[in-house]
Amino acid sequence: MGTHDVVVVGAGLAGLVATAELTRAGRRVLLIDAENAASLGGQAFWSFGGLFLVDSPEQRRLGVHDSAELALSDWLGSAQFSTDGSDRWGRAWAEGFVDFASGEMRAWLHGLGVRWFPLVQWAERGGHLAGGHGNSVPRFHVTWGTGPGILEPFVRALLDARRDGLVDVRFRHRVTGLVVTDGRVTGVRGDVLAPAPGERAVPSARDVVDTFEIAAHDVVVATGGIGANHDLVRATWPADAGRLPARMLSGVPDHVDGSGIAAARDAGGAVVHSDRMWHYPEGITNHSPVWTDHGIRILAGPSSLWLDADGDRLPAPLFPGFDSLGSLQHVTRRGDDHSWFVLDKTILGQEFALSGSEQNPDLTGRDVGLLLQRVKPGAVGPVEAFAELSPEFIWADTPAELAARMNALSGQDRIDAGRLERTIVERDRQVASGLGKDPQVVATAQARTYVVDRLIRVAKPHRLLDPAHGPLLAVRLSVLTRKTLGGLHTDLEGRVLRPDGEALPGLWAVGEAAGFGGGGVHGHRALEGTFLGGCLFTARTTARALT
Length: 547
Known about the structure:
Elements: E1 6-9, H1 13-24, E2 29-33, E3 50-52, H2 57-61, H3 68-79, H4 88-101, H5 104-111, E4 140-142, H6 146-163, E5 167-171, E6 173-181, E7 184-193, E8 208-215, E9 218-221, H7 230-236, E10 249-250, H8 259-266, E11 271-272, E12 277-285, E13 295-300, E14 305-307, H9 324-334, E15 338-344, H10 345-351, E16 352-354, H11 361-364, H12 368-371, H13 381-389, E17 393-396, H14 399-410, H15 417-432, H16 439-447, H17 451-457, E18 472-484, E19 487-488, E20 495-497, E21 503-509, H18 530-546
Parallel strand pairs: 1-2, 1-9, 2-5, 9-21, 10-18
Antiparallel strand pairs: 3-4, 6-7, 7-8, 11-19, 12-13, 12-18, 13-16, 14-15, 15-18, 17-18, 20-21
């Protein structure tokens, strides 16, 4: 292929969607990525495949009453967009995304062959007042096939376009800069890396064997965020949110380092809201790691006690599954590198799930027989494996024994056995009352009024010290880096803006590199299920603007 209309930098979900839309319109595309072919699809491959959909048939079949107006209210309450004008484009993208999520998105994906698990989940319940953070109703639609299931139609479109001569794909090409001619981006330059055969997302060498410079009329940056660059994450973490610890886990592969954003900034593009991020406090070390500091996020139901490093409960509404960023900031403002879930065997079996395609083989493999195991007593296979293999899962028959083992793991004598037992007993009295004033106990009972939570996500209330539900379990939780909420400043067509607010000709950005639209579609805080959807929406919108 001698000439290219568009160079797309990054072969993750956003890059694949942009390429599919561009080639569908007959544009000639060069898709380049620093990793090998095994890593096609990037972070999305490893995702749970959850999509934020509004007023879907799946919701309606479950009796969930949703609307675009309610979804936008939830979004704005979570985002808390600034009123100084800096969030103008982010808010505009948010309004567009909610329209997309309540309108075309499901039909578009359904037409491409994507399907969903019928039991809609309720991630990020919030627990705040009506105008605050969180989803008012369940909106987390898990894709049948998880992350790979979302990627499937776009990988297929890439192969078709390659067969038709509309796309050239070059792996092991790392962009280090953009070519700018007379104020317009006219191409990319970078290093050709030595071949690195290996499995998906395994850290690869950066040995340079050649350089390249490629001309194109337009360049689309689809390189993702900064989650694996822990030094950069710490440097840009907002000072008023405390400090991120020296020991953190990564929820993304090593190549998610922010280099594409930096290259666009160096070429004249504006980067905004770089201090806005979405990391998780519920990370555990992967017992079978793929990338550096590989962590897995626990998706917990609402029953576990969430304790800080000193053994005190986190304040309301910082309960499991309610406000992850609020919980993270509580930990970082204390200066801790860990917190704890305290629960029992019954709660583990009913309420623990793990994020990621590889941790959900039933959904990823579209295995109905395996999926039916979720409604049976006991934990699903991957959770059982962590409970058995992970040293961060601590079992004990008594609070005193549990406290001793928690202290042994952390290497700090911070959990007082007597205080831990009082905390558990106080909670158990609330449950035993059948009513209670404790907001977590009340919220847990309320959660069971939703049929999906009652069936597969929320255990029947019971005393933690009831031997029938034992033994007790403590899980050490660590900070897990994940998403960048700020990014390259873009208008509603996806054109990258300069610091003066004017478009930088020839440069476009999609997905996480663009803060999922406008340099910050989520504002200060995100709703779960909007990250993959943000890649889909920005890439589709921008590519169609380019055609």
